[in-house]
Amino acid sequence: MRKTSRGFNEIKWTFSSEKFSRKQEAERIRWDTPLITNAVALGASKFILLTDVAGVYRDYHGDRELVSELRADEARAMIRDGSISRGMIPKVEACLAALGGGVPSAHIVDGTAPHGLLVELFTERGVGTMLVP
Question: pTM for this one?
Answer without folding.
Answer: 0.76
